Amino acid sequence: MTEPTPVVAAIKIPQYNHSDPALWFQMCEATFELGTPKPVTEGKTKYNYCVAHLPPETASLVRDILLSPATDDPYKTLKEALIDRSGESGHQEILRLLQGEHIGDRRPTELLRVMKRRAAAHQVPDKLMLELFLQHLPSHVQTVLAAVTPLTLDKAALYKETCCFYS
What is the pTM (predicted TM-score) of this model? Predict the structure, then answer.
């Protein structure tokens, strides 16, 4: 009697996200769930898929883990180490938040989402977030928004977009 041939799931891993490795792993996990003909559930298989899709400079950050993978749950070990060792540190996130993102070609709501993501882990009060967000807007927009009460972060972003204050 022959043993059944193991089924390999067909999936396409997303491109690695240098600035947000936690998001990349979340996207990978969603991809694992969509595996055809069945979801990828084995930690070793998830580990191998992720390792195969790491850019070389990112793989260097977890070289020790790649050369000696954990035997119990290599995927979990890789995930925790990569999130811990890459992306922006909490200190860098706060600095970027305080020094300012630049609105550039982005919509105000997109800028606000980026700022909220950076601030999420640091429990930045909404009032401070509103002040930081307003600093990124042109002065004439700040003047108009000063008359809006009560002004919230989301209202400020929407006013900027709906009033077409791009300059």
Answer: 0.59
